[in-house]
Structures are given as structure tokens and as C-alpha cells.
Threonine synthase
Amino acid sequence: MQLYNIKHPEEKVSFKQAVLQGLGREQGLFFPEQLPEFTPEQIEELLALPFVERAAKVLEAFIGDEFTSAQIQELAEQAFNFPVPVVQVSENVYTLELFHGPTLAFKDFGGRFMSQVLRLLAQERKITILTATSGDTGAAVAHAFYQVPNIEVVVLYPKGRISELQEKLFCTLGENIKTIAIDGDFDACQALVKQAFDDQELREAIGLNSANSINISRLLAQITYYFEAYARLPCKQQVVVSVPSGNFGNLTAGLLAKALGLPIYQYIAATNANDTVPRYLASGKWEPATTKATLSNAMDVSRPNNWPRIEELFKVKGWQFKQDLFSAPVSDEQTATTIKELEALGYLSEPHGAVAYQVLAQHLQPGQVGVFLGTAHPAKFKAEVENILGKEIDLPEQLAKYKDRPLLSENFPADYDVLKAFLLAHTEAAKAK
Ligand SMILES: *Cc1c(COP(=O)(O)O)cnc(C)c1O
């Protein structure tokens, strides 16, 4: 697959190159030059397959020119080695549970697939993964790359703005995983990462690679579960899919699934109070506000960095925002009420899934079927959920085992020079090992 830089369309790279490089010139995002498309008959055939086999076929449509079928099948088997259930929540609403991977959030899909691709690409030289996280990417990346030879991982996160348990999950690993708490919000962390990628000298010196949601491999991995959601629905009339959105990578993947031919009637981009996109779709004005801290903290993003890809996709496909995408924000108060509502329906949720459910429930028309993405396990937001429901919830074993381990993070100011000096020294030290 050839991809071009949205900012500089003359810059073209292969999929392998795009995975290694992350971003193009001037932080431009890569976008597929040719979007594959399945016929309705092919879609029917795909829907009949089990998840991993189908995922391999979907991935092959993009990267079949750079990897063999056997390699792709193995990538999918290794990356997607956990269940992806669809659970009915009410008469016409279902949820796709994406949180049964090792870090209990949907970012395991992208993180694990990317680490499998990089494992194949790992050359003689060391690779340094630098990523910013608002909570879950960091955990998924850290776990996906933990103990992978020749790869150093550095994760930046906003100090004091992620849940205690989230922090425990990825800041207690050690070895090739280094975690840094930054004095600032997620956008500040993201800005530092972008600056590092713009620094040619540093990039070369440490073999810099990004693993956050801008990496194209992560998006491809996420396309696969939209097919699963659709395949598992007993009724496929006007399927509306609601995606709890922060950086909009998940939604980009959903829209790519639609571009491939998956007959999703409409997507919903549900946000928290960080509502840049719903405001933009209503007014046509792109006016990011200061990032606000909310209950659904993995979505506390006011400058969603995948948005240019969505614009590009709509342009290429000739889709209309008004028709194919609906977007609305949900306040923390509504989020809490929704978690209670869902509990009354017999479904234990958490803030991100609840945001998606709320917009879906308000927007769904009679005769339509709705699916919202369950992006995190309720236990990942244990304190918040317990506080809202007034009862204790169980900690699954994946989380329980990290609870009492000491945090290994360092604390840095939001200062690029400090980060750069650290990265150079850290890579030298790692080389010497
Ligand atoms: C990252 C994350 C989101 C937002 O996904 P994007 O692809 O950034 O829009 C939603 N929910 C959870 C639990 C997340 O970790």
C-alpha cells in the first residue's frame, strides 16, 4: 500500500515506511493512496468468517503487497488473541466490548498489532518508541512492547490526570519501558512528542518511532472490529455506531471500514466537554478550547490529531458530514446519570462507554439498530464508577496484579530540551547494555 502525506501529497511511502516513520514532513499524517473496496458479495463472505480470519483478510486488502498472506494471518493471530463480544443492552442497542485484552481497553488492538508489525521490521538498529498518552494508549503500548528486543519505549502522560490504576498498569513494568509524568495536560504531552518528531537530528540519533493513534498500523488494526460488530448483530437494518472519541483514531478506523464497503448507516462521534468536533460540525469553525479534565479522561483532547484524516476521507469518498456523521458532547453530570441508567438495564459501564451510549440513545430513531463501543473495562475506572453507583466493583486479575507494585515514573516539566537530553542519554545507556 502506498500512502501520501496529507500536508505534502508528493511525499509517498510504503506501509512499512509509514509504520517506521509515523508522521510525514511537517507532522503530516499518512493516508492510503488507494482505498480498497469490497463488493457486497465479498462483504457477505467476510462477515461469515471468524474474527481473526476475517481480520487477516481485511488487513490483506491494505498490506497484501508488502506481507504474505501467511505473515498477515500470523500478525492477526498474535495481535488479536482475546475475545471481542457483542452484548445486548436494550431492545435495539448493543455494545461491542473491546476491553478484554491484556490492558483492558480497546487500545490493545492497535498497540498489539503495531508491535507485531515492528517485530517483523526490527532491523539491526534500535527503535525508540515515543508516545503521549491520556491513559490507555500508554498502557497498551507499554504492554505490547514489553521485553521486545531492540525496542525502547518512552511514554509521556499528564501528571495527576490519569487514574491511579491506569498509572499502575503501565508505570510499574520497568526494563525497556520508561514512563514520564509531565507537568501539563495531554495536549502538552502530545506537543512534546510532535516536537521530537520534527527534530531530524534526534529522530536519526535514536531511531524515533511513534506508537500513538497517528500510526497507520493502529488504525488498520481497529478497522477489523467494526466488521465483528456488524457480523454479530441479529438485525442489520440501519446500523448506527457510536464511538466515544478523543483523538478520533477509533472513528477514523470505523469510517475506513465503511469505505471498504461495510454497510454502516451512520456514525456518531460522542465526545465529553472537549467538544471541538461537535462545535465544528455545527458551525463550520475549528475552534479548539482549552482542554478540560472530565470523567472520561482518555477523551480529554481538544485538538484531535486524527481529524485531518477524517476530512480527507470525506473528501475522497464525497461523503457529507451532515448525513454520515452525527456528533454531540456529553457532560460529566450526564455521564454519571448514564452509568446509573445502564446499571438499571443490567449493564455495568464506565465513563467512556457511557458517553457513547448517551448520544446513541438520544439520537437513535425507531427501526434503527445501535451499537456503542465499550472502550474500557469498568474496573479501569473503579473509583469513578464506585463513586457513581455507590457500590464496590471487582478488580479483574489483569489489574489486581499491578495494584501494589511501586511506580517507576520520573517527573519532568513540559520542556522539550529536558526531554531531548533525557532521550539521548537514555538511548546511549540502552545501547551500552
Ligand atoms: C483512547 C480512548 C478513547 C478515545 O479514542 P480515540 O481513538 O482517541 O478517539 C475512548 N475511550 C477510551 C477508554 C480510550 O482509552
Remarks:
- The mean pLDDT is 94.
- The two ends are 37 Å apart (CA to CA).
- The domain at 83-106+216-389 is CATH 3.40.50.1100 (Rossmann fold).
- The chain has two domains: 83-106+216-389, 126-206+403-432.
